[in-house]
Amino acid sequence: MAEMDVDQRSKLGFSSGGVLSSRSVMLPELSNLMAIAPAGADTTALQRLVVDEDALHKPSAANRVKTFSFLRNLYGLNPQLPIYREFTRLCHLFPVDTTVLAGTLAFAREPVLRACADMVLDTAIGKPLGREDFEAWVREYAPGRYSQTMYVSFSHNLYASFFQLGYLSEAAGKTRIRKRRDVRPVSVAYAAFLDWLTGLNGLSLLTGAFSKTLELPKGDHLNLLSAAGQQGLMRVAHAGGVLQLDFFTWLRPGETRLLL
Predict the structure, then answer these.
(1) What is the per-residue pLDDT across 167-190, written as a single tens digit (0 to 9) for each?
(2) What is the pLDDT of residue 1?
(3) Nearest one of 82, 80, 71, 88 to 186, comparing CA atoms
(4) What does the alpha-carbon distance between residue 74 and residue 158 come to, in Å, rounded to a whole number?
(5) pLDDT at 132 over 70
(6) Dihedral of CA 244/250/254/257: which sign?
(7) Both 105 and 117 in a single domain?
(8) Contact of 182 with 76, CB cutoff 8 Å
(9) What are the Cα distances from residue 190, in Å, to 32, 92, 128, 180?
(10) In sequence order, what are the beta bridge partners of 245?
(11) Residue 255 domain-assigned?
C-alpha cells in the first residue's frame, strides 16, 4: 500500500491494530463509556472520565490509565476520525445497537480480529467453538511469532472478544456455540459506510469486508439498508438490480473516502 494510502486510511480512522495480544475487545467498558460520555466528547473529555473520575470503576490509578490507553488504541476515541465519530453518533441515537456497531469498528481498527472473523464466520451456526480453536487459528496466522504462553493468552482474548461481540453463546463446558446476532438497520448502515469509505459502491457493498461480518442473506441485507434509508440515516436507491448509497452527509468538509 502506498504511503499516501496509509496516511489517508489513518485519517479516516482505520488502523493497523496490535492490541489484542494483551486484552479482549473490552466491550463492557466501551459500552459503559458510551453510555455516560456526552455526545461528541473529545479524547481529553473521555480521558478525564476514565482516568480522573474513574467512571469505569477500575481498582487502581494504573489500571485506569491502562484501560483508557487500550480503548483509545483499539477504538480511536477521537471524533476527528470519521469511523469513530459516526460510531458514537449512532450509539447515542440507537444505544441498543452498540454491540454490533462496536464490533464493526473493532474490525476496522484491529486487522487480526477481522482476519479471525473469517474462521468464526466459516463455523456454522449451532456448531461449537472452543478456546483451543482460536489458539490453532492464531498459531497458523502468526507461526513462530509468540511464546507458548502468548499464544494461549492471545487465544483467550480472541475467544472472549467474539463472545462479547455476540458471535458465541454462553459457555457450555469448554466450548461456546456459534450463534447469529440480532442485526438492525443502523448496524447495516454503519458497516456499509465503512465499506463505502474503502471505495466500494453498489451491490459490492453487501460483500465488503465489514458488511459480510453481519452474516445477512442478500434479500435481508437490502431490506435493512432500505429501512435505514427510510429512517433518514442516509440516501438509498435500489431498483432494477442497482443499488446506490450516499454517505456524503456523514463526512465533514475536507474528509474524503478512499479510491479503489
Answers:
(1) 999 988 889 999 999 999 999 999
(2) 36
(3) 88
(4) 14
(5) yes
(6) negative
(7) no
(8) no
(9) 20, 13, 29, 18
(10) 236
(11) no
For residue range 201-235, what is the model confidence (pLDDT) as tens digits? Answer: 999 999 999 999 999 999 999 999 999 999 999 99
Q: How many CA atoms lie within 13 A of 142 on its CB side?
A: 19
Residue reference for cell 441515537: 93
- Do the Cβ atoms of 102 and 31 come closer than 8 Å? yes
pTM above 0.70, yes or no: yes
Rg (CA), the chain: 18
Query: How many structural domains does the chain have?
Result: 3
In the structure grid, which three cell numbers stand for residue 47, read together? 480521558
> Is there a contact between 125 and 180 (Cβ–Cβ < 8 Å)?
yes
- Boundary (domain end) residue, out of 85, 109, 133: 109
Same domain, 67 and 96: yes
Pairwise CA distance, residues 92 & 43, whole Å = 17
For residue 75, give the nearest of 46, 49, 97 by alpha carbon. Answer: 46
Same structural domain for residues 143 and 116? yes
Residue (of 141, 139, 164, 135) closest to 27 by Cα position: 164
The 3-state DSSP class for residue 239 equals strand
Amino acid at 123: T
Distances from the Cα of 64 to the Cαs of 47, 59, 74, 165, 225, in angstroms? 9, 8, 15, 23, 39
258 belongs to a structural domain: no
Q: What number of other Cβ atoms are within 10 A of residue 235's Cβ?
A: 12
How many Cα atoms occupy the beta-carbon half-sphere of 94 within 13 Å? Answer: 20
Read off the C-alpha cell for 216: 445477512
C-alpha cell of residue 19: 492490541
Dihedrals φ, ψ of 236, to 5°? -130, 130
